[in-house]
TrEMBL record:
The lineage of its organism: Bacteria, Pseudomonadati, Pseudomonadota, Alphaproteobacteria, Hyphomicrobiales. It comes from Kaistia terrae. It is found in: Cytoplasm. Required for rescue of stalled ribosomes mediated by trans-translation. Binds to transfer-messenger RNA (tmRNA), required for stable association of tmRNA with ribosomes. tmRNA and SmpB together mimic tRNA shape, replacing the anticodon stem-loop with SmpB. tmRNA is encoded by the ssrA gene; the 2 termini fold to resemble tRNA(Ala) and it encodes a 'tag peptide', a short internal open reading frame. During trans-translation Ala-aminoacylated tmRNA acts like a tRNA, entering the A-site of stalled ribosomes, displacing the stalled mRNA. This is SsrA-binding protein. Keywords: Cytoplasm, RNA-binding.
Amino acid sequence: MSSGTGDPRYRLAADNRRARFDFEIGDVFEAGIMLTGTEIKSLRGGRSTIGDSYAAEKGGEVWLYNAYIPEYLQANQFNHETRRPRKLLLHKKEIAKLSQAVQRQGMTIVALKIYFNEKGRAKVEIALARGKKEHDKRQTEKARDWNREKGRLMRDKG
């Protein structure tokens, strides 16, 4: 799996930064996404959000729900619905692994980011995740604050 951020060949279209705070991230998968022409053009504009989106298995396929891709202004009447379910393209083994984890272990499939790969194809990075409790979130915040403070102290001393 490749991350869509550090490599210059990848261009980030949408990022779910809150997911790592709200969930414990497990296995990460890269999936293709079926989009219409106006959705692709709108994604390239970079104003889409996936903060509330999730994926679920339905009828042997995985669908991305609640991802917001704004309307493409130049499309007039041929525009797309902004929050429609979108089919994710995965191998059958990956779909089976995702659906088993959701059914047996009570996990959630969260969308982490949408990006364009080196061929210009839109990809979605999804992950199996387990929701964090409130005290886990506080621990994460405390560790992040300490690391930030430690960095400041090291910078000031050195």
